[in-house]
Design goal:
The chain has 200 residues and is an alpha/beta fold. The protein has helices at residues 15-24, 32-39, 45-54, 67-74, 78-106, 117-120, 135-144, 150-158, 163-169, 180-196; strands at residues 3-9, 28-31, 109-113, 127-132, 172-175. The longest helix has 29 residues, at 78-106.
Length: 200
């Protein structure tokens, strides 16, 4: 039976890189953020519902969602963010469950990459792997690598669980404050423990 591992960490922590390193070791990755983007493509029900709720201004010149404009619109307004989550989260949950059912048959380790895992709960998981990164390092990555405005990055971080909350919920922790080579060693360190979850 497959190990079902939840992977999480704060924005800018390097979860995608950890996912890639786990995939190199044979894990099947189910990325909730990637599924969200897929479901928000033009012509799909989630896209249509978002436009119906927030207006055509959230559609960019290319016909796709203008994600920055949508973020600027909803993140300062809790009720708007709740409306967006009510549109997106159920659809993503259905798709994640469908992919999990398929992957669990074919792989020894299935990794669910879920940014808000600590906030939403761990139902059905064999363990939680947290990628832990210092606030300063995460902010620097978001500003220099992703091109986010610093204040936007700080607002997004403030709405997530704290480092302490994530570490408290973790079965395994990877520290990612250094180089990619150091991160690869961290993944190598926890891989045997991930495999051992199947027997626990």
């Amino acid at each position: 039976m497959a190990v079902i591992l939840g992977l999480t960490g704060g924005i800018g922590s390097g979860k995608s890189t950890v996912s890639a390193l786990l995939a190199d070791r044979g894990a099947v990755i189910i990325d909730a953020d990637a599924i969200t983007r897929e479901l928000q493509e033009p012509g799909l029900p989630v896209f249509d519902a978002i436009v119906a709720r927030f207006g055509s201004a959230v559609v960019g010149p290319d016909g796709r969602l203008d994600r920055q404009h949508l973020a600027d619109l909803v993140f300062p307004r809790p009720e708007a963010l709740a409306d967006l989550n009510a549109i997106v989260h159920p659809a993503v949950g259905i798709e994640v469950a469908a992919r999990l059912a398929t992957a669990a048959v074919a792989a020894a380790v299935v990794v669910l990459d879920i940014p808000l895992l600590v906030e939403t709960g761990r139902s059905g998981l064999d363990g939680i792997l947290v990628v832990d990164t210092s606030t300063d390092v995460a902010l620097d990555r978001l500003v220099t690598s992703r091109g986010l405005r610093r204040e936007d990055a700080e607002q997004r971080m403030a709405r997530q669980a704290t480092r302490e909350q994530r570490r408290a919920a973790a079965d395994l922790v990877i520290t990612n404050d250094g180089t990619i080579d150091e991160l690869a060693l961290e993944v190598e360190r926890v891989w045997p423990a991930i495999l051992a979850l199947a027997a626990s």
